[in-house]
Amino acid sequence: MAQNKELIILTEGAIVTAAAQALAFVPHSVGISSIEVVYGLIPMAIFALRRGLKAGLMAGLVWGLLDMLLRGLSTGSVMNPLQGFIEYPIAFGAIGLIGLGSYKVKQTISNGKNSLGWILAFSALGFSVKYLFHFIAGGIFWAAFAPKGMNPWIYSLVINGGSFIANMIMMLVLVIILHKVFNQLIMVKK
């Protein structure tokens, strides 16, 4: 029985990771800057809340490796191994921290209460840690790309902070509009 459950979680994780990666190919830059709306964060957040921390971290890590191989290396977004490691497997793996809220969100849903606040709070945790890693990498590795005369840390904060805000707005809008759907996707049927 336990092996069957693990196989189901592994299969769900593979499907969600593939969906997140497929969504990465949808154009997602906002305006003329490098601020990005990452659509794959939504299925990953649902999966982490559905299956917990360990499964969320693993799916995020695999998504990061996949995105690095399929997009990062081909677009020149990997400058060196350390930067690639920080911005792909580590940063994407951090999305799995949303899984820390799995029990609390499921308990809230089971009690018939509104889970919106908890979903957003734990999503903010995972998203903020992801963009913290991008911010650090931006200040260190992407400094040469900052506009002339601009502090590279400020530039990294604007780009990565803007991406964090854009993704939280996307999450907020989707959770409000599709709240009942989110609840059904998060709850595991026995």
UniProtKB/TrEMBL annotation:
<dbReference type="GO" id="GO:0015234">
    <property type="term" value="F:thiamine transmembrane transporter activity"/>
</dbReference>
<dbReference type="Pfam" id="PF09515">
    <property type="entry name" value="Thia_YuaJ"/>
</dbReference>
<dbReference type="InterPro" id="IPR012651">
    <property type="entry name" value="Thia_Transptr_ThiT"/>
</dbReference>
<feature type="transmembrane region" description="Helical">
    <location>
        <begin position="32"/>
        <end position="49"/>
    </location>
</feature>
<keyword id="KW-1133">Transmembrane helix</keyword>
<feature type="transmembrane region" description="Helical">
    <location>
        <begin position="85"/>
        <end position="103"/>
    </location>
</feature>
<feature type="transmembrane region" description="Helical">
    <location>
        <begin position="115"/>
        <end position="144"/>
    </location>
</feature>
<keyword id="KW-0472">Membrane</keyword>
<feature type="transmembrane region" description="Helical">
    <location>
        <begin position="7"/>
        <end position="26"/>
    </location>
</feature>
<dbReference type="GO" id="GO:0005886">
    <property type="term" value="C:plasma membrane"/>
</dbReference>
<protein>
    <submittedName>
        <fullName>Thiamine biosynthesis protein ThiT</fullName>
    </submittedName>
</protein>
<feature type="transmembrane region" description="Helical">
    <location>
        <begin position="164"/>
        <end position="182"/>
    </location>
</feature>
<feature type="transmembrane region" description="Helical">
    <location>
        <begin position="56"/>
        <end position="73"/>
    </location>
</feature>
<keyword id="KW-0812">Transmembrane</keyword>
